[in-house]
Fold these 2 entries.
Entry 1:
Amino acid sequence: MVHYCSKCVYPNSSAVPLGFNENMVCTGCQVSEQRIDIDWNARLERIKKIADEYRVADGSNYDCIIPVSGGKDSWFQTYFVKEVLNLNPLLVTYNGNNYMDVGLRNLRKMREVFGCDHIFFSPNIDLLKKLNRLCFKKMGDMNWHAHCGIFTYPVVAAVQHKVPLIFWGEHGYLDLGGMFSLDDLVEMTAKFRLEHAQRGFDWFDMIDEGENIRAGDLIWARYPTDDQLEEVDIRGIYLGNYVEWDANKQTKEMIEKYGFEVAPEPFERTYRTMSNLDDMHENGIHDYLKFIKFGYGRCSDHCTKDIRLGLMSREQAIEKVRAMDHIKPRDLLRWLAYVEMSEDEFDEIADSFRDPRVWTKTSDGLWEKDNIWGGRSAYPVPKLTSNSSAVPHSLIGV
Amino acid sequence: MLKKRLIPCLFLKNGFLVRSERFTNHQYLGNALHQVERFNAWAVDELIYIDITSDDSYDVGRDDLKIKSEDGALGILEVVAKGCFMPLTFGGRINTVQDISDRVKRGADKVTINSQALRTPDFITESARIFGSQCIIVSIDVATNANGEYEVMSSGGKMPTGKKPVDWAKDAEKLGAGEIFLNSVDRDGTGKGYDLALIKEVADALSIPVIACGGVGQFEDFGLALRDGHADAAAAGNIFHFTELSAKKARKTLIKMGLNVRN
Amino acid sequence: MSTVTTAIVDYGLGNVASVRNALTYLGTEVTLSSDFAVLDQADCLILPGVGSFEDGMKKLQGLDLIPILNELVINKGKPILGICLGMQLMAKRGFENGEFEGLGWIDAEVQKLSVSGVKIPHVGWNETNISRQSKLWPEVPTQCFYYVHSYHMVCNDLSDIAALCHHGKNFTAAIERNNIMGVQFHPEKSQKDGLSVLKAFLTEARGAEILC
């Protein structure tokens, strides 16, 4: 039996650990409500002071590192660090080889529009294909390499360049699930990377696992040791603790001021066009697997954010979730060709990750779960490759 | 010279490591085992695990992680103990001698007992006799009541007992407790600092060690509890999760404050 | 190179799980036993112990372990490491709630650590001053170990003392007499420093470097 937050649309089967109070309000909503009581001006003063401490007076080194994907958040972070904090950042990007055209254009524009140096690190594509396949089989997530790269490579670069300060954006799990309070001023930790970003797996778990991956293929994935972190005095600050984050407002500003581009076509699994342009599978099959595992998807994530920002009612959100969470997206076709896998094999492996807390099989062999709008539905799995035109997404028993 | 101790306290709820606030709000941080790895690497002095689960469900909610759900608190303890080469205290939900034995068998060096000790104080004496005083820590949760006085609370900080913390601590010592774990319900998770007056009152009255907990907002607070509160050990839950190499940084702060802690 | 085998003397006392975990981590094969044949097979012995002197001796007697241990340790010279109460039982006499006879391997008495101005039990990490070279610390100087005890071993033959600790006054932190070694602290609970003591003991037992 899945139950849902009374304010947003998150289920208790959420990928992000959630707690619920006696009114069934989830910890994500509870923490989001803290935003009103925070003195954001005081926070701004505080981050400015921190910036002053780290500014390299003689300009002999960068003042900070900003991990950027080219997405809306990285644009805002870079704008903020340069224009508001007056710092000289080094932009660092991990290239997961899944860029949408518009995402790559946005990324390439950054060093021109903001006037920054930029490291665009690209691992060997053959290795990426192997990791895509292996991690899909191992943990039902072909994008593990990206979670690893994004949280590891910028810190590696920081240690190499001896730049202590790293500016991350929002703390994802704080934002979605209220893992921490906004007063904790939580900073980035190796534990967070390993446990939450990487689900407990690290580079050495990928060696000798049937894909012929060797240690030398994963140099970029090795997080610095504690001694290295201590020597450079690495500090990862989340700007989300110091700025009242509003993705819609911020993106609008980036579009108007600097020419950020949103997706020209709508996504299949969510209504937002400004998110996840840096990785075609993030809103696509990576997220589809979240639905297969836990019964909800990116649309629920975005609706939840917009409910908490007061831009959407729960009823409106439920309608969107009903329409989009379950969609099997067409980027699957690119991925199947990329890693040389059949759709049948993909579906079989995906099904092995269905969470028994959420899904049961009907007597007809269909997967069934509770719905946020009440009742249960069966969700037959459509085939994209057998039918090149419109794919049926009908729900049975709705 | 005997060192003052710095002790992270990990609160477990239904198999999760949680961030605690005023004993009522619990945010889920993840799996307790990942944090143990970090503490081992940072050489903290001891580890205290308190199981604050109120029912029996232990489930991290997903099966696609490298570390799977353990089978209840005892399962978690067994895995933690295998790689924990420092004193390990495991408390919470301990009501009988068998409960203590189950934990000691699986690698706990010490246990904390709380509500059961309040219900039947002889439990302290019996446990100390069987396992040794050094194994029995009496945990005392304190809140300020409507009259502005300190009062001992039971059942997860919810039920007033009418007892004064100093009196109950002295009784516990007489009954055979090896140490006292003193927690402030009001300060828990607030980051406003320890209740130094409370700690000093209890620490000065006892000849057994006192471990202070509840309210740490910055590393200097540890130093204040040890120096001004006369505590023998300073513990905290939340703060260790907020920054990288947190325990190392805390230790550096204490050394700078001139306190006698391990290097 | 074959693994060192260690036997933990099983007499019903002691935090056996912790000791076992540490030894396993160091790569030795560990058994827990009170059987002569099994103890004899092992390369070395550990005598753990948490509790009272009286209880410890009574349990050893009850399991008929005293003649077994005398045979293995005194006659056969098997290396043995006593931990905490385990070390204290090696003394001639113990004075905890009465007077009781110990194993008598070390000319010493176990008395209450009663000094004014300090808290008892002695719980926590304390600096340990190495008084002399020992098989337990081939290279290492002052270290910090974890202690938890209310009684201490007073040695009559000072050459038995390998290390001292201070809590109100100096007391015996470690002893060594030929193949008989003992530590008042808990090496299995003293992280890196503690594990290195255990490793040194195991190395000594095998006579070769252990990889760990």
Entry 2:
Amino acid sequence: MANTATSLSSCGAPAVHFNRSSENLAAAPPAKQKAKYKERGNVLAEDQIVQMSKQLETFKSNLEEFASKHKQEIRKNSQFRVQFQEMCSTIGVDPLASGKGFWSEMLGVGDFYYELGVQIIEVCLALKHRNGGLITLDELHHRVLKGRGKYAQDVSQDDLMRAIKKLKVMGNGFGMIPVGGSYLVQSVPAELNMDHTVVLQLAEKKGYVTVSEIKDSLKWEKERACHVLDHLLKEGLAWLDSQAAEEAQYWLPALFAELTSRDVTPEEANQMTP
Amino acid sequence: MDRFSWSNGLLEINETLVIQQRGIRLYDGDDKAKLDSGVALLSTHRLIWRDVKNHECCIAMPLSQIVFFEEQAAGIGKSAKIIIHLHATPANKETGPYQHSKYSFIKLSFKEHGQIEFHRRLTEEMTQKRWESTPASQPIPTATGSQTGRTRAVGIVGIERKIEEKRKETDKNISEAFEDLSKLMVKAKEMVELSRSIANKIKDKQGNITEDETIRFKSYLLSMGIADPVTRETHGSGTHYHMQLAKQLGDMLQVPLEERGGMMALTEVYCLVNRARGMELLSPEDLVNACKVFESLKLPLSGVMVVQLQSHSEEEMISSALDNVSDKGSLTAEEFAKLLGLSVLLSKERLLLAEKMGHLCTDDSVEGLRFYPNLF
């Protein structure tokens, strides 16, 4: 039988030209068809799936061996975790995608980050009445560590950021805004555009900002500055000190956390809003 | 780089080591310095750098020289860096590797990572400025120093040696772990490539792949953590695992949902479920995919994802919201939340939805958003 009519296309998949030979081929019973494809050194998807299943089993046992030797390393060493994550990302694997994944089950990375996610959500929720849902990464780190207690394993800021990245999947406005060398973590779906972000960055140095400062540094008109500041007030991200010496000051509780001597209760916070 | 002075690298009496990091290359401004592989040590008083090959090559700079610093993210083929901006050179600075520099900043390039913690600790030290309150004693005299000077130096060298030994030990463990990890990654990469080949074939509809085989394939992808854009189109993100999970969640969330006005934000659900499990926690994606199975996942206005009881239809919720608002004349999201036992976020969502439907209108002031029945 003439098999000149069939040829391999550049990607290796068989390209069947429609002519008499191919009709013969098509008419052959499925088993023979499969065999003919195999002859040409091309593997079918079904066979590849079987192959993958076998490779998966091998991989699983390799991972188990790795885990038995090095699980502690991942647990104790945040640098190693960073390297591990970056290697995974380079090859196109997300070890945190599912709790049912091998990485999670055998290395325990999943539980580590998912629990961290819970702790992050809880800290953000507890402080939302005070800072409107915006918190510095440093403060978040500090409070998460405090909540975890003395004997829990250490958590780096890189760990926090990866956990937050995962939380984004659930909507709810989790995000990170670069500010002054670190980040602000947003945990509410308040709309913050470039203007808001830039004002936050300006306020970072002193914890507050005034309309004049915005006009001077950013060269905006008064209306634009007031519009942005009003939005921040409304979202609970800024507090207004209208009794400040020269000019009203807009304070961002997210930024002056270190200066406060005690935590404000929700009732007190309600009394303070304008 | 002309702010650095030669140093013996020994810590002084009141000086404490804060953090050290290997694999640091120094930059004079934007130019690579010859000092390309060393350990950076941050103490309470100084920034010290020691060449990894030639330990005698050691330089230091007081932290008071630093104006501010910032991170520079890693790029392709480029390590992450910390850029440190410096004050002008003081007149009494001792000699160092550079007589003069046209730059007033340096960079630390973290070829072996560690930039995040280093940055963090540097931030702490620059905030606390411990060098101001505990001035280090006279610098340890060098070769011509007094007897006591030498004794002091030996004691500290002993401590530093211990730190060095421990670091070497840790490094050895880590190198081994890294080697094993790299081998593992090579195998994982093969699987990724194989899965891509399969996915392409499925996409091009080549061969006879059964439903069953596709579902099996999806579970392999799940195990490996490989993203699945191809079969997701035809089969959704669910696997058997997610369907099981969905049933469990359905049972588990019935009561909590009823207690909270029929709706819960997905992040609330995440915390509730994972706190209850204690171990073998769910990933955020697991939760999202499981909820999608039930089609009980809603995405109201502002992108907040919520889980909703089947029994609560949208019309019911809106008309009851309208009743509540009418009863009280007007309501803010906080007041509505208290009334229903909902979270403030979700109560706002519900009121906004009612507004969108034209049943409510709002008064938007700096004091907040207040909802009124729409009489127009």
